[in-house]
Prior knowledge:
This protein is of the alpha+beta class. It is 50% helix and 23% strand. It has a four-stranded antiparallel β-sheet with strand order 5-4-6-7, covered by helices on one side. Strand 1 and strand 2 form a beta hairpin. The longest helix is centred in the C-terminal third of the chain and has 31 residues.
Amino acid sequence: xxxxxxxxxxxxxxxxxxxxxxxxAKLFGVKVNEFSIFMGPRLLHWGRGETTYSLxxxxxxxxxxxxxxxxxxxxxxxxxxxxxxxxxxxxxxxAGMNFLTGFLVLVLLYVSAAGFRTLExxxxxxxxxxxxxxxxxxxxxxxxxxxxxxxIFSDFQLITDRVGQGLMDVEVLRDGxxxxxxxxDMSKSLFEDNGQQVERYGLTFGAVAENSFGTCLRNAWxxxxxxxxxxxxGLLDLITGAVGMKDMSGPVGIVDAIQETGxxxxxxxxxxxxxxxxxxxxxxxxxxxxxxxxxxxxxxxIFFLIVTWIVEGITKxxxxxxxxxxxxxxxxxxxxxxxxxxTLNDIVRILAGG
Length: 354
């Protein structure tokens, strides 16, 4: 069941991404030659008006083929004939639709929530190293730890685990004012819990029991921003070498993670809810990744659009679009190669039971 949900989820995210391009292209009068879900050989296709709609074999993407994307068309309705700001909106619309989808999914999930945990400290255990006159106090709302914002309750664990234990600068909201606490000892101590010694910070956080629609929207938005920040953290870890290729996952690994997320839940209904929540994370992940200024991605196209606009504005000479096309083609080859390596890594890891 979770495999079917995963396939449907990916298909929907691909569709909604390409629909963002398609809708804005049509809105701005750009001629769309083909709208396709997936890549490779056609399985199904039909025509309506000037556009061919198709379903292809390989579930690794999709495309909205606009007239003149490669810069070789003189058609007045070609993509390249439109104003730069219109082209930028068309290019960004796919990622925008993915982000909006993730946000709306979170709203739907949070509507039925009984309440939300907060970052307000409601109790401090005796022996908590972070407490004190110059430290954290009851009533403080923790908003930042060592330069990293805390958006939602789970961020406390996320950021402290990432930064590590020790002295940290902590920003709190105290009596309506921001207060920066220097060199707070954010180290765990041993506390007794039901007769057992456990390591923890000794801070108890509050909750909002009333779930108004405004509270729901706010928490869905903050969770969306948090998801995007987690993607940024992952990229930084990859660049700095904190994680390697073996830690990356592609579609195969994500499908496996979705199944594991569902099966590890206490019940089928809880499993479905967890998978849908994970789907919201994937949607926002795709939105963020697609806007990176990397050739072949929408962010790369927008980057070259801005560069071309600036250079042509200064030199008053038109840049031959074939050079950008070469760069994007090379970028696509590299991305497909990376996807293949990551997929093989996923398969080996799954077969090894890792």
